[in-house]
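Reopening this ticket.

The earlier resolution said the output was attached, but the attachment link was broken on my side. Pasting everything inline this time so it's all in one place.
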Amino acid sequence: MNPNSLPLRQHPKLAVILWSILLLILGGSCTTDVESGERRPSSPSVSPAPFDLSLTEIPVEQALEYFQDPVSQEKLSGIESITQSGWKYVHVISKFGPLGGSLTSGVYVVLKPGQTLSGYILLISTLNYPHNFMLLPTLDYRPIQITPDGSLRPFPRLRLEPGVWRAFRFSLTSPLPEGLHTLIITLIIEPDHFFALNPNPALFDPAENEAMGFRNDTIEFGLLTWVTSRFPQTVLDWPPQARSIPPDQTVLLTEAVLLKEKPAPGAPELFLNKDTARAGETITYYAKFGMGGKGVAKEEIPVRVLIFWDETLTQVDDLSVPTQWAAERKPIPLRISVPTNLTEGEHTLTVVAYPYPYYLRWWKDGREWHPNAGAFSLPMARLPVTIESPP
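Inline output:
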């Protein structure tokens, strides 16, 4: 057994599937060739987005005033129903729109030029234990800093207690330029806890066991924003980038995991919980994607992968994942470069996948445009890497 790995416990990812269904009903840089791992120049930037996101906690009662519409009430009722059935999850409910204007819900918003995006977010944890979460915000797949309490922080922490609702008001600090934009806030559970090597899951502390089960789950706020002077009347009015793949040619990715090595046929997969490396080297890991539902779409799955060292974005990879590989959960080589400026000692590697960048995931109650594409982001790994001295 690899000493830097844990047995990967099977997790069904039903949270992603059920929540995606509920949401749809209601509401530097390189490109990697998956066969060879060869890298080609690409356009994504690793520099931070030139915006800040204001995030202010407010009383839940104050926020609930904006969630009295039928759609929001149906979402809240659905959460109550699945919670009573024993379902455990962290639910994210949102309303958004132009600052000072009417608010809506769903997965997209259209703004006029000069309007500033704003809204409200409810976080509802139905997990068994309290947990800390890291907020990883990106705008156009570049990190954006959050001002949660008047101070600027790249990845603030948040503690959620079971059954306790938290409410936040958010807004960008300035209007977005015309065009498509994607704002995503990914919540990563227990970001500062690194799981120890233990081949027997029964020996884990129950709270740690719960955290490990949700480490790669999608808990997020995701929003496609189109800033334009004319409101789209049909799906064909949207930019080609937002509808580049036919809805029936998309798939629901439910899993994205970073593996240390490609498992031998019939051998168990290994949970990557720590590693060692040297500054300046390139490590070949393996990215494994899994999909929900039956059937395999013809189109490949575009996935943008963001790689952070010590919470600084250092690498962006654009993958074209064959749907058959996702159906078979076949590992894909993913080369990660270790920055040359990392000092000896422990550093943190974070890897997050973003399927279908800038894609329109829903349109007009799903009657006109109802893709299978679900989550905006999929956490792949967060682990300590010890940087050793040169040989």
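Reporter confirms the inline version is readable. The longest strand covers residues 179-189. The radius of gyration is 20 Å.
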